[in-house]
Each structure stands twice: as structure tokens, then as C-alpha cells.
Amino acid sequence: FCLSKQKPPYWHRNYPEILFSKIEDNEISVRVKGFLIKYIQENSIDINKTQFIFQIISDNDYLYSNFKEFLETFVLTNKNFEDFQRLSLHPSSGTMMGSRIPYYEKDIEFYESLLPIFNTIELIGHKNYIKKRIQSLRKEIQEDLKREFIESAFR
User: Fold this and answer.
1) Residue 140's pLDDT band (boundaries 50, 70, 90)?
2) Residues 116-132 pLDDT 10s
3) Rounded mean pLDDT, 79-101
4) Contact (CB, 8 A) for 50 and 83
5) Which strand (E) or helix (H) includes residue 115?
6) Cβ-contact 91, 121 below 8 angstroms
7) Second label for 38, Cα 20 to 30 Å away, from 57, 113, 135, 143?
8) What are the C-alpha distances in Å from 26 to residues 32, 34, 62?
9) Cα(69)–Cα(71) distance, rounded to whole angstroms?
10) What are the backbone dihedrals phi and psi of residue 110, each rounded to the nearest 5 degrees, phi first?
11) Measured between alpha carbons, how far is 143 from 49 in angstroms, rounded to an integer?
12) CA–CA distance, 145 with 143 (Å, rounded to integer)
């Protein structure tokens, strides 16, 4: 079985959504998770396939809840920093209502949960990349706090 970004003539634009949607049955969810872990192990060097599968994982609530395990599987078999940077670490879309600060805090918590994956010398670049994202989000929080304070002062 091959998942690929290159779409054959019979490709349905929502094929990944159809294939991995509504994974509610525990037996099915275990099988899907096992399939994806094996797929990542076998294809981690092919960054196009891996990038594609991580996009699917990031955009599926059930799969994304297991993201850390999928990422750990990837970095065990592919330590290339440039390949890691190409992976989708977050869903490609979403909506924000109200203050952005809670969303930033949730992202920080998520990134901090990933840090233990990168506790080897070979993955120090990966770890620094995640730490920079955390720093950037903390900066965004400070900027938003200032902006919200100023906005509330003029109401």
C-alpha cells in the first residue's frame, strides 16, 4: 500500500479524510496507529511520503492525539534536521476566538511535551528548533498582553 502526494487518476480529493475519518472503534484505531507507525518507519527517508503522512496526521483529531508517538518513530529512523523541519507539526487550519494567548499557551505546552524526544546529541538541532518556537510563542504572548492592555485602556 502506498500513500503518495502524487495523485493517480482515481484519487479523490478527500481520500485521506475518508480513509482515516471517524476512527472510533478501538480495534480499528489500534490497527490504524500500527499501520501509520510501520509506514513512517519504512518511509521516513522518503521525505515527500513522510511529509504527506504527517499532514494527514496533523489534520485528523484522533491521529493528532498520537502525534508525539508518530514523531518519535520518525526521528528514530530519520535524524536529518532538514527533513524534520519539513514536517507538519500542527493542523493546517483552525479558528481562534477571543484572545490568542490561550492558543499560544496550548502550543507552548505541546512543544514542551515534545522536548524529551530530542534528548540525544544527534537531535540537538531538532531540540533547539522546538525551543526557538517556544521562545517565539512566549514573545507573541507578551506582545498580545501589551496590545490587549492598550485596547482595554481605550474602551
Assistant:
1) very high
2) 999 999 999 999 999 99
3) 86
4) yes
5) none
6) no
7) 113
8) 10, 12, 11
9) 5
10) -60, -50
11) 37
12) 5
Please name which of 71, 84, 69, 91 lies closest in space to residue 124, comparing C-alpha atoms.
84
Higher-confidence residue of 19 and 91: namely 91
From the number of C-beta atoms within 10 Å of its C-beta (0-12, 13-18, 19+), residue 76 rates as: middle
Nearest-angstrom CA–CA distance, 143 and 137: 10
Residue 75: partners with Cβ closer than 8 Å, 6 or more residues away: 84, 117, 118, 123, 126
Residue 6 has pLDDT above 60, yes or no: no
Pull the grid cell for residue 21. 475519518
Contact between 53 and 86 under an 8 Å Cβ cutoff? The reply is: no
**How far is it, in rounded angstroms, from Cα 66 to Cα 33?**
8
Which pTM was predicted? Answer: 0.80
Work out the burial of residue 84: count CB atoms within 10 Å of its CB; fewer than 13 is exposed, 13-18 middle, 19 or more buried: buried
Does residue 10 have a pLDDT over 50? no
Region of poorest pLDDT, from 7-11, 35-39, 55-59: 7-11
Q: Look at residues 24, 4, 23 and name the one whose alpha carbon lies nearest to residue 15.
A: 4
